Amino acid sequence: MIKNILVLFALNLFLFGHAQILKKEIPDKLLVLTFDDAPASQYSVVAPLLKEYGFGATFFVCEFPPNYKDSTLYMNWRQIKALDKMGFEVANHTHTHANVSKLSQSQFNAELEYIENKCDSLGITPPQNFAYPGYGLNADVLKFLEEKSYRFARAGGSRAYDPLTDHPFLIPSWATNAGNKSEINAAMGEAKNGKITVLTLHGVPDVEHPWVNTPRKLFKEYLQYLSDHDFKVVSLRDLLAYIDTEEAMKTIVPNLTMPLKN
Ligand SMILES: [Zn+2]
């Protein structure tokens, strides 16, 4: 008996030297919903629908130039605070939707700290997670994020997230638009065998950026499909229950040659 346990332990070490990255097994049908850029429809359309379905989500907010003050186009901070109060995650997408691959460390920190300070002054849960505006990133930015103790950073790449091989600052995702329903349905099917599907959405609808528009009807279809098929739909920070990001950062070498843009 003891011998069997020892053999199993040794086998486990051999096969899963990285096993401690996972705090618990990744279930099939685990899906992360993320919403970028703070368009007004995320408050008026998305949040109420998510509540109806009991789904979690992450909202990567910024003050999108030049029209962020126009409340017909973008959420205001009162509405962003309401998302936090509703239990959704508010996370960092920089102050000005900056291409962070072109910034110095001090410029990068200023972009992040504007959002952090805004959250602090309004009593919003401190942001721990980041999404790269326009999928701009490089090796320096990964170091900057680590120094600021961020946990996850979401990129693109149109492939599933494997917590044992993808660095926590290079989380891949698929982006929805009005015309890629079959691609997104296939993406949902990839949430199995230890992999997690992460979706990037923008406005529902998106008035300012029609190329990333998701019509309300299509969004509702996705939510209904996820509900009918018993998906667990969560925010990015909910993955901390499954993934030890410190361990992952120690053991996984960031691979910047993988597809990282949508
Ligand atoms: Zn964005």
UniProtKB/TrEMBL annotation:
InterPro entries, per this entry? Glyco_hydro/deAcase_b/a-brl, NODB_dom, Polysacch_Deacetylase
Q: Does the record carry Signal as a key word?
A: yes
Which compartments is it annotated to reside in?
Secreted
Q: Which Pfam families match?
A: Polysacc_deac_1
Keyword annotations for this protein, in alphabetical order, are: Signal
Q: Where is the NodB homology domain?
A: 29-234
Name the UniProt record assigns to this protein? Peptidoglycan/xylan/chitin deacetylase (PgdA/CDA1 family)
